Amino acid sequence: MKKALFALLLLCLPLIASAQQERDFATQYMLLYAGQDTTLVCQTISPDMMKHMINREEVEQDDELKSILRQIRTLQVVRAEGKTPAQDNFEKAVDLAKLNTQRYKLYAYGDTYQIYLRKKGDIIVELVHINLMEDAFCIINLTGYMTKDFIKLLSH
Question: For 23, which DSSP code?
Fold first, then answer.
């Protein structure tokens, strides 16, 4: 029995390892383009920092904000400044999302933004907001376990 259990565990290890290596959109974007564009900067708010934010007194008193923060695991912001790099980065980010249509589904779009969702069943595990401003480019990448109500709360 122990040998069978051990063999099963060994068979599952590659699946566990590949699941842990799954990259979010911002990380993948930085791996592909950070070396080509020195204006790109990525800032991350980790799960530990998210927990710390939830426990702050101001958040404890705001049920809506607390609900939003509880559903986010990590937040990454990728940005680049300057008109030319902004346009180029916006196009690269949109192209990357379009290359991964099985993973990311277009949720909303306009002339200067696109929002993509990655879902597992009814749960949103990643939200990617790609934004082009006049002299800047920005990706806001949220990962976590978010519901449909999460997006409604965000839009307020």
Answer: P
Phi, psi of 63 (to 5 degrees): -60, -40
Q: How far is the C-alpha of 86 from the C-alpha of 133, rounded, in Å?
A: 8
Distance CA(107)–CA(66), nearest Å, equals: 24
- Phi-psi map region of 45: left, alpha, beta (phi>0 left; psi -120 to 50 alpha): beta
Domains in the chain: boundaries: 22-155
pLDDT digits over 24-35, tens only? 999 999 999 988
The highest-level CATH class for domain 22-155 is: alpha beta
Q: Which of 117, 145, 151, 137 is nearest to 42 (CA)?
A: 137
24-80 pLDDT, tens digit each? 999 999 999 988 767 889 999 887 887 777 777 766 777 887 788 888 899 999 998
- Mean pLDDT over all residues of the chain? 82
